[in-house]
Amino acid sequence: MFGRNPLITNVSDLQELARRRVPRMFYDYVDCGSWSEKTYRENSEALSSINLRQRVGVDISRRSTESTMIGQKVSMPVALAPTGLAGMQIANGEILAARAAEKAGVPFTLSTVSVCSIEDVAAATDTPFWFQLYMMKDRGFMADLIARAKAANCSALVLTLDLQVQGQRHKDLRNGLSTPPKPTLRNLIDVARHPRWCLGMLGAKSRTFGNIVGHAPNIEDTTSMSLWVAEQFDQTLSWDDVAWVREQWGGKFILKGIMDPSDALRAAESGADAIVVSNHGGRQLDGAPASITALPAIVEAVADKTEIHFDSGIRSGQDVFRAIALGAHAVYIGRAFMYGLGAMGEDGVTRCLELIHRELDLTMALCGTESIDKIGPSALAR
Fold this sequence. Notes:
This protein is an alpha/beta fold. The chain is built from 15 helices and 10 strands. Helix 14 (317-325) crosses helix 15 (335-366). The longest helix has 32 residues, at 335-366. The chain is globular.
């Protein structure tokens, strides 16, 4: 689709290509954090500051990156995180990302605020994917979303807990983020600079929120995400609500947005099959610690009670290794695959996953580790 592409050797190469190929408001939507973006930056910086322990004289010839996530076999302990507006990075983005994940043998998680609907993605893939849900005021709409995810044979439900209110993201406010773009002069000029993106969008299955428009009461036309968030996200969220969602779902259940050991304990006690240690990629509470900084205390509190997944700041296979060494069972990537999606569509997501897999494999080799379950604190340099 894209013709000749430059040599891609790491996720940063995909990021730069996406920056050139995606209209500014949608590129900035991915590449931004809240307020000063301090936490956004520190997520990656804190990971990269962790030194690894090089080992020699160890038989690494039979090493494998294969693992499991909530009982599901995976080619490596990596899942594609739920990310809003993937379908505005490129036409049918969620479908393309799900297909790439399917080929790579890793889970794909569809966001509530996706452009392609649950039904669109299910019709285009063979492997069951995961679905992410927010706690919303309209419980009837939530119950309907859960029923739709069941009907689509989704294999896990991910409930995001850290978005009762939306963090202020200055780039989105300046850009007037909307789906599709509002026809302002600035937006029209920016979109005109990306003719390849425009041509793709002409054939897109959807250019608005596919899981919401036409399904939620009183939303029959294009509504900006910020307005929908302000009206529907439930600030009264409690653990009783979590129990209600789990009962409605009845299947594999993951709680995302845990940054405190006491919250991790409550999440484990709620019956979650896994928790995700995550500060929402620095998009919510600016000034919160980097997710990797919060991970060890949470591992100490609940490692024997539930599966611990990790999110925020992963840009390489070495970052995957670091998170696992500090106690995570698996990790999620969000921005990394979104850069690939904006850069090269399905091929870009595939390339992103290939890079991360290769980097993880090489890091395991150089650290003298032959399997994922043998990566631990001893793999890190003191």
